Amino acid sequence: MKDGIKLKGKLATYMRWPFILTILLVAMDVLLYSVSWKAGGIGTVFTAVYLLLGILLYFHRRPVFLNELISFATQYGQVQKSLMKNFALPYALLDAEGKILWMNDEFLYLTGKDQKYRRFIGNIFPEVTMNKLPLPEEVRDFEVAYQDHDFRLNMRRVEIDELLDGSQIIDADKEKNYLIAAYLFDETELKKYMRKNQEEQLVTGLLYLDNYEEALESVEEVRSSLLIALIDRKINKYFASIDGVVKKLEKDKYFLVMRRKSLEQLKEKKFNILEEVKSVNIGNEMAVTISIGIGINADSYAHTSESARIAMELALGRGGDQVVIKDGNNITYFGGKSQMMEKTTRVKARVKAHALKEFMSSKDKIVVMGHKITDVDSFGAAIGIYRAARTLEKKAYIVINNPTSSIRPLMDGFLHSQDYDFRMFVTSHEAKEIVDDNTVVVVVDTNRPGYTECEELLYMTKTIVVLDHHRQSKDIIQNAVLSYIEPYASSACEMVAEILQYFADGIRIRNIEADSLYAGIMIDTNNFLTKTGVRTFEAAAFLRRCGADVTRVRKMFREHVEDYRAKGEAIRNAELFREHFAISVCPSEGLDSPTVIGAQAANELLNIIGVKASFVLTDYRNTIYISARSIDEINVQIVMERLGGGGHLNIAGAQLEHYSITEAKDVLKQTLQKMLDEGDI
User: Fold this and answer.
1) What are 378-409's pLDDT values in tens digits?
2) H helices then E strands: how many in the chain?
3) Most buried among 59, 244, 272, 531, using CB within 10 Å?
4) Is 445 part of any known ligand binding site?
């Protein structure tokens, strides 16, 4: 069998060197003959002896040499096998299906298995699934945990094509002619120190008293200092218990410093400081509420502090009484369960009105737009801004793409009037032709860029104004020069009505414009039943003085019989989830504005005894629209935020794309169940 073995490569060349050197000796003999025949003869004899000995050694010693090679190779293979078996790094070989074929001693020790174990590696490490096995030329890394240890599992393919091609006893699928090598790297200590380092990270925050002035006014003057002292003590004691530091900056503002570990403790407690501060009562009629903004994971302390400031602005913009954590681009909310108190002063409205006037005076054109599927509140607010622009004798346009039946009666009144330019309403395409650097874009009734009628307009000019009454989320219009967002307001029309009172002396609002603004307030407050404050009635009174007619507005918003039937169908088919949540589906076929009907049905469902919140789903243009309503016990805004939407404490909504009605309803129920279990609602 050895006779059939042939040497090749560098080793074969090395064995042939004696014969190659014989050629050199022959050449030397030729030269010797030219000098002396006697010397040449002697050289020839020695060359012949050398060649003969070389041939004898080559053929006689070749089997012995091959034996030595084979013995060395065998021993070398055994050494390799022994090294792999006793290798300190855990190592295993898997087949193409991920089943374990072989494990070295360290792998066996760590997993507690034996060499006969032939199951899928995912049975040991659940993080590994079939679709996560490595592809050709790919290395896969997994973070896995096993018996209180943290590992990094490295997997890669080992091709065995040549081995299989030369084998006479093994046949394999050509598509699976590879093995998978798996290495385990113990990173328990590394993870431990990483966690410890993360726990020691600096976290900065801001804490504001939302209603400092109002709370002090509700208590006797001699007790006011005691109230503040009790709140200070409550705040300092709370954060001292988690190894935090509190520094009072102003009478109603505090600076917080703590470790990341302390923040995790507060998360587990769901920031119960929000409720503890409310419990401070020495006869004050109004409970004190606080807002907290926290910044983490920024690349510097300065940026961490800036993140805390942004988080605080977001908390206040959402109505206060909550905690907002800004972790890079991720925003987390806690609290926000109570209704924001209405501000009795209108100083802010006056300041914003003057600022708006300055911006509008400096430009030639004003373009107003609301949210997609424009409703009455959005339309009325846009009409109010249109009137402000016309008062300044500026060209003004309102962006509306697809007028719904809810706004068409109002819209027709403007289109059929000779007092208004027939081009006052434009589509998104037309608006993009109008907007330039000399244009003010005013966004009403929304503060999210993706919800606007034409998001592209926000990037076509630098002068953007936002007027909205919805709570802010992390996705807000960032580049606004003026942002007036008041969650306590009942509607955008209420805010615009207040602005108009301070916008210009003797501003003349026509009857049809007053009707539009009044209708927006009426619709958003459900005929002045929800989110209605003193300033809401003051705005309504102002509009009434300007010529708004209650009867005319009511007649304008009477419903078609098909809409009324659809609303009745939604109410009839409502189901109670967990006894207090009414969930229903509003039919959309044949309806011009099914989302509006769905919102009306959600309002009606609140009239059922025991219902704390209602949710009506509407399938419209391949999107599921959810209208959420509550009276006072449930914050539907935080429910809708879990689904990517938002709104107010009592009025909110969300849009789900690529869902069926059944799937959307299941997701809603799962969200409600989870929030109930976690105590978030």
Assistant:
1) 999 999 999 999 999 899 999 998 888 788 88
2) 23, 23
3) 531
4) yes
